[in-house]
Amino acid sequence: MTILISNQDRPDLASPAYHPDIRAYGWRLARREWETEPFSGRKMTATRQIAAMLSVRPGHPVIHRHSLWRLEFGGRIEINSYADAELVPDWDDQKRLHQYRKRPKFFYQALQRGRGEIRWVTLTTARLAYGDERARLAIDYTDAILAITRTMIDEHGRLLEATEVKAPASHFEIGHGAELADDPNALFPPKNSRKRESPSRSDPNAMGSDFLYWIKGPRGARAIRQYGPLTGLPR
User: Cα 203 from chain centroid?
Assistant: First the structure.
């Protein structure tokens, strides 16, 4: 499977509302099958590594959101989002927290409000998985992972949020829409996407997602045209 990166849309991948099960079946039906919810969110203090991602001091309050996707073909994707907690002062309000979980655009809208023009930086790398990552992604100790980090930056250069996506390199590869598509500007607009309709509850593959794209079969633009987007990771 290929993770296709584009610049057409940048949704909040860590939002529970973007989880594939939620998009396919809705909250009520999806939660019946879970022993525990595959996503979480909490306020914490930044470790040295997280502080470097957001350009803050270690110990600075951040909001960590985590989501684990278990896909039908057996692959898994882990998503971590880190945001400066000073920009989300109402996180501890239970009513507001419910909105952050249920409304997929609400968290990003709160971060971007009054921040001027937003720009994004996406970095990709690969490395061997750590022990805890191997357990969550259900991979062998010899397997490498792909790590994709997308950072949101305001017009003054302040780092607002960083989303880190981890996927087994044995299951996924990375492609770029501008290189693979005949018309990269026509890949993702709603009027041109075959999967934007409301997903069918009888078809778990009909996610209607616009943020993480798989290519099944032959690689390249032919595969994109033939199968279309199932799910998307824009940069």
Answer: 22
Strand order in the sheet with 39-45: 39-45, 61-70, 76-84, 159-168, 144-153, 119-128
State how far the Cα of 83 lies from the Cα of 108, in Å rounded to an integer.
10
* 167 DSSP β-pair partners: 146
Residue spans of beta strands (DSSP E) within 17-158: 39-45, 61-70, 76-84, 119-128, 144-153
- Give 186-212 pLDDT, tens digit per residue: 544 333 333 333 333 333 333 333 334
Q: What is the pLDDT of residues 20-30, one digit of tens each?
A: 888 888 888 88
Residues facing residue 82 across a β-bridge: 64, 162
Q: Where are the beta strands (DSSP E) in the chain?
A: 2-5, 39-45, 61-70, 76-84, 119-128, 144-153, 159-168, 173-176
